[in-house]
Amino acid sequence: MRHGVILTAGDPREAAELGAVAEAAGWDGVFTWDGVAIGPGDTYDPWVLLAAVAMRTERVRLGAIVTPPARRRPWKLARETMTLDRLSGGRLVLPVGLGALDDAAFGAVGEPTDARTRAELLDESLAILEGLWSGEPFAFAGRPSRLLALTHRLRPLK
Question: Strands 146-150 and 138-141, how do they pair?
Fold first, then answer.
């Protein structure tokens, strides 16, 4: 069994320090949440925060608790995750899901809020991520998303 710690407070510098402390204490993973408008407090971009943690650690796995690709552009998420994976030496994990139902980052900005549509966008996003992570030329024609042809030159580490 592996154990991880979830960073929910502090700024990115404090998160990086806490990540280093967690690694030194023997934890296996360091995670943060990928929300935009859930509750009070500061909200930091998970990929930037985890990049700071990656620079202070060598062994722990890194990731967001759950990333909802339905509210992200999949080609941008592919680049962000590939960059973090490379920066961390292949320690990225990417749990995905529909996202918190009370996250105003959906309805408050015009994104779909119903679970069925979010599930369809999740499936489509995963297909796009897989195609882009292959490092090969990739095209996609889905319901809301369309890529004519795109190749990411940097693949995640295996």
Answer: antiparallel
Concatenating the DSSP letter of every residue in the chain gives ---EEEE-SS-HHHHHHHHHHHHHTT-SEEEE---SSSSSS----HHHHHHHHHHH-SSSEEEES-B-GGGS-HHHHHHHHHHHHHHTTS-B---B-S--TT-TTTGGGT---SHHHHHHHHHHHHHHHHHHHT-S-EEEE-SS-EEEEE--S-PPP-
- Report pLDDT digits (tens) over 93-144: 999 998 777 666 666 666 777 888 888 889 989 998 998 888 888 777 777 6
Within 10 angstroms of residue 136's Cβ, the number of other Cβ atoms is: 10
Give the CB-side neighbour count of residue 78, counting CA atoms within 13 A.
21
